[in-house]
Amino acid sequence: MIMDIPAHRVVVTDPCQRFDWRAIFGQDRPVELDLGAGDGGFALAYAGMHPEINLLAVERLLGRVRKIEKRAARTERSNLRVLRLEFGYTVRYLLPSESVSVAHILFPDPWPKRRHWPRRLIQPDFVRDLARALRPGGELRFTTDHEHYFATAQQAVTDAQVLQRAPEWNWSLDPKTDFQQTFEAEGRPIWRARWVKA
Ligand SMILES: C[S@@+](CC[C@H](N)C(=O)[O-])C[C@H]1O[C@@H](n2cnc3c(N)ncnc32)[C@H](O)[C@@H]1O
Questions:
Q1: Which domain holds residue 44?
Q2: What is the pTM of this model?
């Protein structure tokens, strides 16, 4: 079957094979991830501000993925690729070891009901999977508007025992995410944390 594959889409042809970043981006640059990219406001702007890196945006909703791809094509973002897949699977099975410089997890779904807490992305197993994929010195940058998620995420990273807490990055230089703009307009507080792989 012949299909039109959008230029910025990463297609997984073998779900057991880890990514070859050079094949995906066409050049070797530090790789960063935007896990749960939403409509891609952050990914598009960040890739534009940082031509020295390659950015993979991971998002499971097709409508959002298509939005990112259209905007990436319009703005000719050659250092941005989009993957439509579940981010837990992506991190565990598709990322090569010690290959990622920064993983951005920005306003992930907070799952506020107690019975849904196990669905939160930042859990010890996920953190260990991510740490495998991070380079030495690689970092996880986490932002949320949900205080309880912030607390459980910090505990999860502590329990995983693979990343060290570090001072906040200079987040004021980062473009705002789509959700961030909404939350800031509503006056909600925002929490951030950064962890580094030794
Ligand atoms: C609350 S939104 C935040 C989007 C964006 N980071 C922002 O700040 O504007 C969370 C995003 O994560 C995506 N998402 C949730 N679970 C996911 C999963 N398991 N795999 C990939 N994406 C997921 C959702 O579809 C949604 O677009």
A1: 29-196
A2: 0.97
